[in-house]
Specification:
The structure is a homodimer of 125-residue chains. With 125 residues, the first copy, chain A, is mainly alpha-helical. Chain A contains six helices and three strands. The structure holds a DNA duplex (30 and 30 nucleotides).
Chain lengths: 125, 125
DNA sequence: CACACTTCACTACATTTGTCGTGATATGTC
DNA sequence: GACATATCACGACAAATGTAGTGAAGTGTG
């Protein structure tokens, strides 16, 4: 039910597929090679592991090649990672976390306005 | 210069020592056993690894036993972990991160007020 | 059809992490 | 001084991660 654990390298692969899916192994490789510099087999290994973990689904097309599609929603994974990060580093407390990032971030006045609005909704909700 | 990578289990050990230092291995064990259920040797291994990584310093006292003290500041480690988390999950962008946590957190009106103030300072700074 | 190229399934192998166990040493207690 | 205890340094070992190589099998091309 919960999104599976996705390692750092695997996360890059997932991003490529959340961005656009389905994609074959070679397609994903083409996308990631510039940034990651990975050999195609490396990408294939990551894809296989992600399928085993249930994070991806494979679809075999007519010509026998396979394409990969996310089986979990990005938002769910973000949620899970965020939760675990907050636990680990901020002892589960949202406020210190927000304080940390709100103090360190460089934001435009517009973004600040938007965030303040979100915070207001938070209160009233 | 940069804080070393600190794994999840290791982080618990660091927390114990940031909380109070110096402490001997047995003291740290006593602190962590209830929550973690670790054998003393497990704690010792983690301590040793943290020393190797340069996250802890050892001080041998008169009686030959050793006590551990953080060699890196918690704030610096939090900073590093936060940065890498933001990179990984939010592609380095602070705003979506803040949106995520601001939307999901349960905050008291007071906390909301405080955060809004922080955001304002952010703008003017 | 024979060969080159693509796609895969397997295997491999070093590191890091999580969890200890063993055996030597040092110390406090009778 | 002999024994129970506490403390350490080392070694162990499985699972997860990062990063590929090999060899078989399918496919398009002359």
């Amino acid at each position: 039910m919960n999104p599976p654990d996705i390692s750092e390298s695997e996360w890059s692969v997932m991003e490529a597929l959340w961005e656009s899916a389905p994609q074959t192994a070679s397609e994903v490789t083409k996308v990631l090679r510039p940034t990651m510099g990975w050999a195609e087999n490396t990408v294939r290994t990551l894809l296989t592991r992600l399928v085993e973990k249930g994070a991806l689904k494979v679809k075999e097309n007519a010509s026998g090649t396979r394409a990969f599609t996310p089986a979990v929603k990005r938002e769910d994974c973000v949620q899970a990672e965020s939760e675990s990060f907050m636990q680990r580093i901020f002892r589960g407390a949202a406020k210190p976390l927000l304080v940390h990032f709100a103090s360190n971030a460089k934001l435009t006045p517009d973004e600040v306005r938007e965030l303040k609005k979100l915070l207001d909704q938070n209160t009233t909700k």
